[in-house]
Amino acid sequence: MMVETSMLGRFHHQRLDFKRCVPAFITSHKTLFMILWIAAFLSVFIWQRNMVVGGILFFGRVAARPIPMMRPVAFNLTDFGGVGDGVTLNTEAFERAVSAISKFGNKGGGQLNVPPGRWLTAPFNLTSHITLFLAQDSVILAIDDEKYWPLMPPLPSYGYGRERPGPRYGSLIHGQNLKDVVITGHNGTINGQGQAWWKKFRQKRLNYTRGPLVQIMWSSDIVITNITLRDSPFWTLHPYDCKNITIKGVTILAPIIDAPNTDGIDPDSCEDMLIEDCYISVGDDAIAIKSGWDQYGIAYGRPSMNIMIRNLVVRSMVSAGISIGSEMSGGVSNITVENLRVWDSRRGVRIKTAPGRGGYVRQITYRNITFENVRVGIVMKTDYNEHPDDGYDPTALPDIRDISFTSIYGHGVRVPVRIHGSEEIPVRNVTFREMSVGLTYKKKHIFQCAFVHGRVIGTIFPSPCENLDRYNEQGQLVKHSMSQNVTDIDYDF
Ligand SMILES: *[C@@H]1O[C@H](CO)[C@@H](O)[C@H](O)[C@H]1NC(C)=O
Ligand SMILES: *[C@@H]1O[C@H](CO)[C@@H](O)[C@H](O)[C@H]1NC(C)=O
Ligand SMILES: *[C@@H]1O[C@H](CO)[C@@H](O)[C@H](O)[C@H]1NC(C)=O
Ligand SMILES: *[C@@H]1O[C@H](CO)[C@@H](O)[C@H](O)[C@H]1NC(C)=O
Ligand SMILES: *[C@@H]1O[C@H](CO)[C@@H](O)[C@H](O)[C@H]1NC(C)=O
Ligand SMILES: *[C@@H]1O[C@H](CO)[C@@H](O)[C@H](O)[C@H]1NC(C)=O
Ligand SMILES: *[C@@H]1O[C@H](CO)[C@@H](O)[C@H](O)[C@H]1NC(C)=O
Ligand SMILES: *[C@@H]1O[C@H](CO)[C@@H](O)[C@H](O)[C@H]1NC(C)=O
Ligand SMILES: *[C@@H]1O[C@H](CO)[C@@H](O)[C@H](O)[C@H]1NC(C)=O
Ligand SMILES: *[C@@H]1O[C@H](CO)[C@@H](O)[C@H](O)[C@H]1NC(C)=O
């Protein structure tokens, strides 16, 4: 039932014994020659089998990749009656396993290994000090009948389920008020089987907001690495009001069209977060940093801050690579996005907000960003008028400032820049430095601005809008803009 660490000790002893035996066994050159010959034959044999099946076969048995021990105790889902046939419901097996691990909280926690197989389940909750380890070829499959999905109260900073008033469906893998949670593996998969949900959503047959695939709330010290998340019913990975989160080496997939609201990662009122080395291709924003919605978000008042996003490749045909907002009422600050490639997408990086949001977006740094076949590269939109209800305060105006773009590249871009500030919500202190983006068409309206205050340092391509001040490479003012409020925005282009 349980693999104790002492097992590892025993294993080492066996290896030592084996080594001692070897010299005694090889007594003659003849034996040695024979062993080498057999070894050579076997390697060719194994190599050939590898070519055929792509796995490591040894005497006809698959030698599974050994699963590392990351906690003092480890359990196997099968110990709790799990059946990985894609048909049997494993909800109770997961619940029993989590409950067993919850007893080891003060002893360093426990690990739940999910072996290769297709493990169908309804939503279940995690516990603190757990490592959920998805072996290679293991798939946790979400049951797609909403009867099995519990309803939960709306998020306090949204006031509503995001798409329907009242409660909302919980997430497939859920956690709240936890500490020290790891979800990792040898690239096993959590599959939300979202197709049925997307269809019902389009047909308006759902009475409640759809559930995310993984949602961790009010928690800290979260690590999510080396797994694949796919086909979420709604947002894929939603850390809500959490602190100290690392997401690394994660692949997130959903169809690029007709998979509504399948955002990749939604850091929401989160602090101290690192997202790196991920590939995300989904039906909405690859990443959308948020912090609550209008009056509910203002009242909750928890910003998203200190977030580093780097070394990502992302694709979003219907939305954007990296978004901030539109729900940002608790504020968003100190975000760095670097070494990002956005390909075959509608928009590259975007900040969206509206009157009524309140809050702020500031200290945002974009560095070394490449757009490949993207309609609009850099987007800021200040009239994203989607409100929870009529109770929002139209005089709650967000403050958007201190945003810098350095080393922006690309090709096949239609509109490299569209910064649409307004009289109520001007965009302040934007800096461009080193930019060279290849265009689809060389026409007017390629660097679109309205109510933007800021500067360009050195020469950039395409040449900037007249709203921005010009500085030389040495940082000396060359030309002060007299027309920060001039509007040249063209959505038809
Ligand atoms: C889990 O149990 C199954 C069935 O007994 C076994 O095939 C598998 O190797 C075990 N996996 C681990 C990681 O212990
Ligand atoms: C998970 O825990 C939360 C909080 O206790 C609860 O509301 C929710 O129903 C639980 N989900 C499941 C699937 O048990
Ligand atoms: C993990 O699996 C996904 C989906 O099959 C694949 O696209 C990705 O390349 C894999 N990642 C690694 C590191 O093998
Ligand atoms: C939604 O509500 C209607 C009316 O109350 C009900 O007939 C229907 O079964 C509900 N649908 C779902 C998916 O819960
Ligand atoms: C953040 O979480 C990681 C993983 O649990 C942990 O090792 C680290 O100590 C935490 N950092 C802080 C500052 O608490
Ligand atoms: C993730 O996978 C990489 C490559 O296989 C490995 O080097 C790394 O140790 C793994 N990281 C974690 C945290 O599991
Ligand atoms: C800004 O965020 C980074 C993480 O990306 C962090 O290391 C740094 O300390 C933060 N800066 C401030 C002033 O908090
Ligand atoms: C810029 O980002 C790309 C990935 O998009 C990376 O290959 C390259 O090394 C980065 N350049 C620098 C100078 O970090
Ligand atoms: C403008 O923004 C930059 C960061 O992009 C910051 O370093 C600078 O202090 C800001 N300037 C003012 C006047 O606030
Ligand atoms: C530009 O608009 C801002 C408000 O967004 C205003 O404060 C400022 O005076 C305007 N500048 C000019 C030159 O009209």
Summarize the structure.
It is found in: Secreted, Cell wall. This protein has 5 helices and 33 strands. By secondary structure, it is mostly beta strands.
In terms of DSSP E residues, the strand content is 35-45%
Secondary structure class reads: mainly beta
Largest sheet: 25 strands, mixed
Radius of gyration: 26 Å
The unique ligands bound to this protein are: 2-acetamido-2-deoxy-beta-D-glucopyranose
- In DSSP terms (H or I, runs of 4 or more residues), the helix count works out at 5
Task: Identify the CATH architecture of the largest domain.
Answer: 3 Solenoid
The proportion of residues forming helix, as a percent range, comes to 10-25%
What is the third-level CATH name, the topology of the largest domain? Pectate Lyase C-like
The number of distinct β-strands equals 33
Backbone shape:
elongated
Mean pLDDT: 90
CATH class designation of the largest domain: Mainly Beta
Distance between the termini: 63 Å
Assigned CATH superfamily of the largest domain? Single-stranded right-handed beta-helix, Pectin lyase-like
Poorly predicted ranges: 1-28, 38-58
Q: Can you tell me the number of structural domains?
A: 3
